[in-house]
Every structure is written in C-alpha cells, then in structure tokens.
Amino acid sequence: MKKMRSSKLLKSFNIAITGLFSAIKSERNMKIHIIAALLVLIMSFFFKLTQSEFLFLSLAVALVFITEMFNTAIEKLGDAVTKEENAYIKTAKDISAGAVLVATAFAVLVGIVVFNKSAQSEMNVVIDVVRNSPLYLIILSVIITAISVVIIKKLTKGGTHLKGGFPSGHSAVAFCLATGITVITTNVYASIFSFLIAAMVAESRLETKIHSFLEVVFGALLGVTVALLLFRIMEVII
C-alpha cells in the first residue's frame, strides 16, 4: 500500500515538473521571468537583506511564476476548445493576462522597497570612495572612453577595435587621462606634461598613417569630453 502511495506521489511530482518545463519551453515570457528571477537572486547576495525581506522577494517572484503558468494553461485550454474567435475565451485570456500584470507590478514594487534601503547605503559607500580617491574617476572615465570608441567604430564600420578606423582610440584614451590628471591636480607642470604626452600619442598615430587628422582630433575631443562630463556629474552628485 505504501509503495503504491509513494509511486503515485512520484508520478505527481513528475507531472508537475513536466508541466513546469513545458511552460518554460513554450512561453517566451517564462524565459524572461526566469532571467529576471536569477538576476534578483544574484542581487540579493550583494545586498544585506533581512530574512523577512528575502521571503517577501521570493514570494513576489513565485507569484509571478504561478500567475504566468495559469495564464499559459488557460491560453492552451482555450486554443484546444476552438481556434475561432470566442468572446468568453477571449475574456478568460484577458483576465488571466491581467493577473500576470498585477503580479508583476507587485513584484516590481516589492523589489523597489526591498532594494531601495540597501542601495542607498551602498551608494553612500561608493560616493565616499570616489570622494576620497579621485583616481577611481580617472579609471572609470578611461573605461567609458574605450567603450565609446569601440561603439563608434562598430557604427562607422572602420578599422578594427584596436587599430585604425574612426575615431583614434589611442588619442581618446591619452587625452582622457590628461584631462583627468588636470582636474585632480593643482600642479600646472603635471597638467602641461600630461597634455604634451597625449599630443605625442596623437602625433604618432598620424606619422604611422594609422589615423587621419580628423580621426585623431575627434578621438582627443571624445576623451576630454568624457572625462569632464564624468567629473562634473560626480561633483553634482557628491
């Protein structure tokens, strides 16, 4: 008797798991929910959440999955009954889709409430680090400049990521560094020396004929602009 009960229980679990994977496989929204759930789970490890906050977050995620699965079941059932337009089936589908919308809105609200407090404290830590270590801003501006160069090269379809094309990446990074050093230092000679080195880098790109004059100038302007904008934004935030 116990063996029959355990067999039925195992069969029930298999059916439930099959249903879950069928929903994931057939519905694009379920894949999106899974990605969002994984991101939330990863974020929860980096924020200091209490047990209650983590529980509310988990319940919100589970609620979205449950309503989406019911929505999928109703849609499949309606399609099985008839492929023709039916007012009752349409209403049932609309209501189930509305349930998913409500659950998703609730999950977003829970996420904002739960992460907001921790995010503010983490942001304060970041601001303190930036305030006390302007070197971080220079590194960040160089990274943003390099990414911008790669994106522009991709859009203009010129050269490779590291050589040639519009604009000059070496000039952009060199002038970005020179601008960052000028902003954080009070030493005029250090500033002049930094821009002289940046100019020499730009000149070398022209002499080797890897870049044109326009590509070098645009790269230099891009580096200066990114650095100034980033320092200005952080100055306003801080």
Brief characterization of the structure:
By secondary structure, the chain is mainly α.
Structure characterization notes:
With 238 residues, the chain is mainly alpha-helical. It folds into 2 domains: 2-122, Orthogonal Bundle (Helix Hairpins); 133-233. Helices cover 86% and strands 0% of the residues. The chain is built from 8 helices and no strands. It has helices at residues 2-26, 28-46, 51-81, 87-132, 135-156, 169-184, 188-207, 213-237. Helix 1 (2-26) packs across helix 2 (28-46) and helix 5 (135-156) runs antiparallel to helix 6. The chain is elongated and about 80 Å long.
Primary descriptors:
mainly alpha, Helix Hairpins, 8 helices, single chain, 2 domains, 238 residues, 0% strand
What low-confidence regions span 5 or more consecutive residues with pLDDT below 50?
A: none
Sheet/helix structural class: mainly alpha
* Quaternary class: single chain
What is the CATH C-level name of the largest domain? Mainly Alpha
Instruction: Return the average pLDDT rounded to an integer.
Output: 76
Distance from N terminus to C terminus (CA atoms, Å) equals: 71 Å
Helix-strand topology string: HHHHHHHH
Please identify, by name, the CATH architecture of the largest domain: Orthogonal Bundle
Shape: elongated
Summarize the main sheet.
Answer: none
Helix content: over 70%
Number of strands: 0
Q: Cα-atom Rg, whole angstroms?
A: 28 Å
Furnish the topology, listing elements before pairings:
Elements: H1 2-26, H2 28-46, H3 51-81, H4 87-132, H5 135-156, H6 169-184, H7 188-207, H8 213-237
Helix pairs in contact: 1-2, 2-3, 3-4, 5-6, 5-8, 6-7, 6-8, 7-8
